[in-house]
Amino acid sequence: MKYVKLFDTTLEYTQYINSSSKVLPNTSCCKGDLTAPYYNPLLEERIIAKFKTTYPNANLGIMSSNANVLPQFTEIEIDGVVQETVDKTYKIPSAGTHTIKYTLADNTSLVAYSFASTGIIYIFIPSTMTNIGSYTLNADQSLEKIVVSKYNPTYDSRDNCNALIETATNTLIQACKTTVIPSSVETIKSYSFNFNATDHDFVLPDGLKTIQAFSFGNGACPVSINIPKSLTSLGISAFNGQSRTTSITVDPSNPVYDSRNNCNAIINTAANKLVMGCQNTVIPNTVTVLGGNSFQSVTTLSAITVPSNVITLENNVFAGCSNLTSITFEATTPPTLGASVFLNHSANLKIYVPSASVNAYKTETNWSNWADCIEGF
After folding, report:
1. Could you identify which of 155, 183, 271, 290 might form a hypothetical disulfide with 205, taking C-beta atoms 3.0 to 4.6 angstroms apart as the criterion?
2. CATH architecture for segment(s) 260-377
């Protein structure tokens, strides 16, 4: 039972009641003990979701098919009607938007993947929900609205941001395609933007400190990525599959990263390591390492030159670049090559190296796996 404190003392309450200019709280929507100085609001303890159907008599999936999801629910209400059985799918007579209310056996917890890939368009998280499993709304590109009860002690959706935020740590743990990242958010959790949002661009606010690995993916990467000066920790593949990204800049005051020479990339300044590129990246001559996954799955990348100062390519640098047909390496000595650097490459890929070094490249460790692609220039 949750109480909201209205007065610090019973005396304050008595003075308020006896005042001639008082406006009493509306207790018609309250339950429980109304004894001063507390009262208990009638708070919604159920998860509320909305789904849309295009045709009448459509089968509507209202939860994930994950085996652990169904047992947690004890009652389902659809458009005001309590259903006779609790199931994952219902036939809905009419087309349009439908409101589903979920009663849980434990109304404090929601298991992982509960609404992942269901087509949900709206979700309300009640005040009682204090333990939400990972990837609850993962890959739901239809989701437009995330609302958290203002009485929830663990999570919030501050500033009408349309995101689920862990209050104590200021960590954004789940976003949707209409999310506006609040300036008070310090961390973006892995996979929180794992959906397709080609009609929306996300702005990284100053104040953001950490973007964890694989935070943005499946089309949610912004067209223009602007790294604020406050961001000092970037996980591997934080922007994964950044095929639609065309420009990358880093605030000049950032102490950890830079985008020197307008290179359209993120570079770890101290290590001279390029950690993320895009289709328009020009690798600076001062870079010595291409970080793991730095161009992974950039399907819009067609050609690139790797300067002679690059001595190491970490794992999966160009993996999944299916339209990359031309890579030129200027170094006469083959750089150290990690695993799967050119995995799932284009059938027409050509790796150009100095003519005098063709044999050296073809016989070097890991380079030999791509010997058929290597030619001299």
Report:
1. 183
2. Alpha-Beta Horseshoe (3.80)
Separation CA 110–CA 127 (nearest Å):
13
Q: What is the pLDDT of residues 328-344, one digit of tens each?
A: 999 999 999 999 999 99
Q: Where are the domains of the chain?
A: 1-42, 44-220, 260-377
